[in-house]
């Protein structure tokens, strides 16, 4: 139960920060789009949990724990330094980095700056734009879901909690952004890193 809350909290921090950024920029996120973003995130997580369930049939429990520990460890360090990584990639993106496919380039741009999902600059997130944003926000779920899934027995429970927490994080992030977004900039992606490292520690010690 506690580990499920820790996992979905770590995955929801990016959604919270994205919603905060949207609110700060005066970009509206309709409730149906918030539900869509949370739902796509659950879909990505569900795919990874399903793949993990298949892996469970071929890997020993000891090997599963080690793989899970390594994945969470890598994700933890990535999240801790995500701010610096994004600044570096923004610099490289502006200088020399090019991507051939428009959709891939758009998702990459949204990863670097979530507000780029508002492609038409309408200050109103459309369903199509919400899909791009959801994909950019859900990539962590693909990896962490596999790491978590190779040691759980109730994936449906994880998905329900993930959708609920993800939707709440979007709503709360937007509400807080409306109040303080013009004055403050939030960057607490490092908190996800600490949570992932905690999950890595539980796997190492188990």
Could you give a short description of this structure?
The protein is mainly alpha-helical.
Give structural notes:
This is Manganese efflux pump. The chain crosses the membrane at residues 6-22, 29-50, 70-89, 130-150, 156-176, 188-205. It is a single chain. This protein is mostly helical and 206 residues long. 78% of the residues lie in helices and 0% in strands. It has helices at residues 2-24, 31-56, 61-80, 82-95, 102-112, 127-149, 155-180, 189-205.
Hey, roughly how much beta strand do the residues contain?
A: under 5%
Question: Can you write the helix and strand succession as a string?
Answer: HHHHHHHH
Global outline: globular
Largest sheet: none
**What is the share of helical residues?**
over 70%
Distance, first to last CA:
16 Å
- Which whole number gives the mean pLDDT? 81
Low-confidence stretches: 95-102
Q: What structural class do the secondary elements suggest?
A: mainly alpha
Radius of gyration: 17 Å
Q: How many individual β-strands?
A: 0
> Total number of helical segments?
8
Pfam families: Mntp
Organism: Amedibacillus dolichus
Keywords: Cell membrane, Membrane, Transmembrane, Transmembrane helix
Protein name: Manganese efflux pump
List the helices and strands and how they pair.
Blueprint (H helix, E strand, L loop, with lengths): L1 H23 L6 H26 L4 H20 L1 H14 L6 H11 L14 H23 L5 H26 L8 H17 L1
Helix pairs in contact: 1-6, 1-7, 1-8, 2-6, 2-7, 3-6, 3-8, 5-6
């Amino acid at each position: 139960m506690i580990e499920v809350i820790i996992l979905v909290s770590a995955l929801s921090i990016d959604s919270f920060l994205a919603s905060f950024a949207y609110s700060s920029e005066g970009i509206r996120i309709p409730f149906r789009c918030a539900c869509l973003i949370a739902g796509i995130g659950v879909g990505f997580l569900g795919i990874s949990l399903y793949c993990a369930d298949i892996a469970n049939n071929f890997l020993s429990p000891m090997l599963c724990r080690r793989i899970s520990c390594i994945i969470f460890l890598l994700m933890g360090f990535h999240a801790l330094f995500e701010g610096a990584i994004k600044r570096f990639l923004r610099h490289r993106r502006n200088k020399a980095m090019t991507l051939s496919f428009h959709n891939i380039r758009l998702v990459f741009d949204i990863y670097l700056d979530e507000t780029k999902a508002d492609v038409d600059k309408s200050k109103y997130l459309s369903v199509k734009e919400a899909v791009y944003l959801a994909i950019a926000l859900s990539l962590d779920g693909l990896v962490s879901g596999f790491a978590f899934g190779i040691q759980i027995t109730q994936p449906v429970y994880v998905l329900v909690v993930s959708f609920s927490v993800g939707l709440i994080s979007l709503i709360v992030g937007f509400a807080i952004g409306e109040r303080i977004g013009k004055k403050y900039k939030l960057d607490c992606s490092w908190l996800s890193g600490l949570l992932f490292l905690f999950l890595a520690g539980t796997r190492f010690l188990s």
